[in-house]
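4.2 Preliminary Data

To establish feasibility before requesting continued support, the project team ran the inverse folding procedure on a target of 362 residues. The structure was first converted into the token representation described in Section 3, and no sequence information of any kind was made available to the design step. The complete token record follows.
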């Protein structure tokens, strides 16, 4: 029973995703949104062998990934005889249990697994004998019609291996998992959003001077930020009807820290001091090139401004530093990331004018 429990535990989080859409009312029941991997099988731990069923089933392929009416389910793998006696007359079949259409039904199945006896197709013979300690590769196919998947939903299934052991024909191995059937024509498209962060720890001190020149290494060729931006630049493009300029085939939202842009702008403007040494910075050309590339990418992708300095908003609020948090947010007079508001960036590290005047913080 341990082999079955391990596999079902590994698969259950995926089929929960298929049931969530119905349970939360996003789709009309019993229609289900297909999870990323609707069909899954995996081999449990080697020591999880039931003594009375000596055949270990290791699955290498379990397809299709989306079961629709008319599909053929294919399972390939290896049978291993962990017992001391040879097994002959081998046969295999996939049998299924009752359909599950809600998360509560799936939870109940986890507590009390379905024996998967609602539909039992004919056994298919497997060629060869399985000697003690031996292995046998197998391929099993069954049309979805034979499993009679009449409703969209999640079906508990059992891969059942029979054989003659000591002259007695019996079940010698089994492996349990799930099949998911969803509509041939999806009732709704699944929306996917890509969020690509471009952030870096600050390399400046409280006075605004650079403590080190690590950012120059990050934006140079093969640096961390250079590689992160290159991924977006290499996204494939598509040419819309009537358009002359291709647009990205995949839209990505760029999450950018304004403090990073500020540091790069200072570097790109010309010589800059590092660690108290005049004009020691060596990243002017690299920063200028990176900003030019980033500008081109931002022109075709959505940009989301992170809090200035990529601060931990929850931690600042919990510590009672709401004024510091407000200064880190762009888009409002109180959230300009300037100290004080309206002053040029530099060594002034005072609070906002509202704080200076003793007025309540916005």
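Position-by-position output of the design step:
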């Amino acid at each position: 029973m341990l082999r079955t429990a391990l596999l079902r535990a590994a698969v259950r989080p995926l089929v929960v995703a298929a049931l969530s859409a119905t349970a939360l009312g996003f789709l009309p029941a019993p229609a289900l949104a297909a999870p990323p991997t609707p069909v899954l099988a995996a081999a449990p731990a080697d020591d999880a062998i039931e003594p009375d069923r000596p055949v270990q089933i290791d699955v290498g392929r379990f397809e299709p990934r989306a079961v629709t009416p008319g599909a053929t389910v294919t399972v390939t793998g290896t049978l291993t005889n962990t017992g001391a006696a040879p097994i002959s007359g081998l046969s295999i079949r996939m049998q299924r249990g009752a359909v599950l259409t809600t998360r509560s039904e799936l939870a109940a199945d986890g507590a009390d697994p379905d024996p998967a006896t609602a539909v039992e197709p004919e056994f298919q013979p497997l060629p060869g004998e399985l000697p003690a300690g031996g292995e046998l590769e197998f391929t099993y196919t069954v049309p979805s019609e034979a499993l009679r998947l009449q409703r969209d939903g999640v079906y508990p299934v059992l891969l059942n291996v029979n054989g003659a052991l000591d002259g007695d024909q019996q079940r010698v191995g089994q492996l349990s998992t799930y099949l998911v059937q969803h509509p041939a024509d999806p009732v709704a498209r699944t929306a996917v959003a890509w969020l690509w962060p471009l952030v870096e720890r600050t390399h400046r001190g409280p006075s605004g001077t650079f403590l080190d020149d690590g950012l120059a290494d990050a934006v140079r060729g093969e640096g961390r930020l250079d590689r992160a931006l290159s991924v977006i630049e290499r996204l494939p493009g598509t040419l819309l009807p009537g358009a002359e300029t291709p647009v990205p085939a995949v839209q990505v939202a760029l999450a950018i820290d304004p403090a990073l842009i500020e540091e790069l702008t200072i570097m790109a403007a010309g010589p800059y001091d590092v660690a108290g040494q005049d004009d020691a910075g060596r990243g002017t050309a690299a920063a200028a090139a990176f900003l030019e590339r980033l500008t081109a990418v931002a022109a075709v992708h959505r940009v989301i401004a992170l809090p200035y300095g990529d601060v931990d908003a929850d931690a600042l609020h919990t510590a009672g530093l709401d004024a510091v948090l407000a200064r880190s947010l762009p888009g409002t007079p109180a959230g300009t990331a300037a100290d004080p508001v309206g002053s040029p960036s530099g060594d002034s590290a005072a609070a906002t004018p509202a704080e200076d005047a003793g007025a309540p913080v916005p």
